[in-house]
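ok so for the tutorial part 2 we go from a plain amino acid sequence to predicted C-alpha cells. step 1 is just haveing the sequence, like this:
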Amino acid sequence: MWEAWWHKKANAKAGSHRWLFKRFGVDGETLPEEALRKANYRDWLNGMSAACTQAVAQLGSKGEFRLRHERNALIYVDSWGETSVFEGVNSWRDSLSVDILPKNIVRDYGIKDFTCKLRGERNGLMNALRVAQDCLNSNMADNVIICGQFRSFPVLVFSETQRFLSSSKRGKTPANSQFSVERVGCLILKKQPGQGVALHLSDYRLLPGSLHQRAVLLADHCKEYIGTDTHAILGVAPPALSMRALQRQAFEQLPANLACVSLSEMYGDSGCMNPALAWQYLQQSHITGHSMLSVLDGEGGAWLLENWVPEVQP
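step 2 — the prediction. this is what the C-alpha cells look like for a chain of 314 residues:
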C-alpha cells in the first residue's frame, strides 16, 4: 500500500500513467514484481568493474601502462548513499564496495593518492567533475577516475519525485510511461589535453521566478557560451512535468540552427548518471566540435558543461 501510494504521487508529478524499470540482476525465474524489488547487486558491481576496464582500454596499451604508474585518484558516485540494507548484502566485503568504495577498482589500479565517495543525489556526477577539477589543478593527482552507478529502487524513485516543483497544468494524466534505467559508468580525466572529449564545467546557476522567467534565465545561460563552432545543445532533466516544460521552453529560445535534444526523453532517467548520456549521444551521433550540456538538478538550479569532441583523422 505504501509503495502504491508513492507510485500514484509520482505519476502526478511526472505526468505519466505508469513507470517501467530496467535493473541489473533481475532473476528471470522469479515473479516480476519480486524480481524487480530484489535485483541482485553483484551484477552492477561487476558491470562497474567492466566499465572501468573498458575506459582504461580506450587509452591504448601505452596509455594504460602510464596510467598504472602515475598518481591516480578515485571518485565514486551514487544517488542514494549507503544502500546495503536495500541490496540485501550478505558480505562485509561487498558492503564496503557498495557503501564506501569499489575495492576491485582500488586494488587493480593501485589507487593511493586520493579516494572519496559522493552521494549528491542528482548532482553527484557534476559534483564529481568539480572535485576532479580541483584534484588535477592542485597537482594532487595525474589522473582522476570517476566511477558511478544509479540503482532504481522503486520506492526511492517514486518518493524522490516529491522534491520537484509541481506543474501548473491540471487535468487528466496522459497515458504515457516513465522509464527508470539503471546505469553504471566510468570516465578518466587528465589535465593534459589528449585523446577523448575535452570538458569545461561552467558555473552553476539558480533559476528563481515563474516558469517563463526560469526558462529565459536558462536560455540566456546557454547563449553566453554559444560560439560559431557550437553544433548541439543537449539537456537532461528530472522526471517531472515542470522540469521538462522548463527545458523545452528554454530550448525554443535558442538559435534555430542548433540541434536541441532532451536526452532524458530519449534514454529514460538514470538519476545522477544522466549527464553521462551526453557523451554516449555525441559518440553515437558522430557530432564533433563544440556542444553543451544543460543539467537541471531538480533543486532550483542548472549546471552547464561544455564538450569538445575532436574530429577523427582519416
